[in-house]
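Data follows
____________
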Amino acid sequence: MPAVTVEDTTTLPRVPLPAPGTVRRRTRSVTTAPSGFEGEGFPVRRAFAGVDLRDLDPFIHMDQMGEVEYAPGEPKGTAWHPHRGFETVTYIIDGTFEHADSHGGGGTISNGDTQWMTAGGGVLHIERPPEHLVVSGGLFHGLQLWVNLPKAQKWVEPRYQDLRAHESVLLASADAGALLRVIAGDVAGQTGPGSTYTPMAMVHATVAPGATLDLPWRPDFNALVYVLSGAGSVGIDGAPVRTGQLAVLGPGDTVTINGAVHQESRTPALDVVVLGGQPIREPIAMYGPFVMNTRQEVLDAFTDFQAGRLGSIPAQHVPHAAVRGEAGQG
């Protein structure tokens, strides 16, 4: 069960019913995310694996972290690692993560919080569970999304946004059968707290069994629906989806999501993340933690990292300074 919820969705502002002439998007593809391990060994699903970058643009990578119930001593994070040329969005659905960077920033995100990091020209970063969670174990579930930056903004100064759970805009579908948490973007006349360089929207929706969500969606945005848990269908064509699957939708101005009437006992509803953004349509050269426009810029990023020009680990964190630059590390 996601940390951010409400007892009665009928008390929330409603997403309006689709207007006459609305074009509901059709499903172009459904892919299943392969499972793997990230950082020091926490389990992930690679949500975008096998999907053409042109369909994802402006997004480039997403991991579903967990859902996992850790035993004492099991929780894991990442080592210090660099980033350049994009933004990372870490959304903690349940559990707690600490983060720190080479600019001296950092903090803790937990139970519905989002940490939005603009790497820009370059930063060193670390994410890990707090010591008390390592000792006790516990539930951990989250997402990390990578959002590309256009060429003109790849060299901006690094910045952080710590978006607290209570800042998310809560809405209900027209039939009150779906709870929406708007993290970023303008959705149904409401604006989420995330400030983005690239125009985009990010929504976490919980759709009750048998309920329908018709979500207004900017026609100049792409539309992706990733299933965190549960079963249902997406698009006007009703393409079936289940846990760990990504649906890429075609053009239109409404995203349609239906919760299956019958759900597994451990997943009482359909939980999805809906993503969309204005495509950047620029060349992409990426390797590991660097996302640039040319191969030479990626090589330059490695050179700058090795020369210490992406920052240095703050003194209080030096004991954890096993810096790596592996693909996917957040």
Summary: The first strand starts at residue 27 and ends at 32. The CA atoms of residues 120 and 156 lie 5 Å apart. The two ends are 24 Å apart (CA to CA).
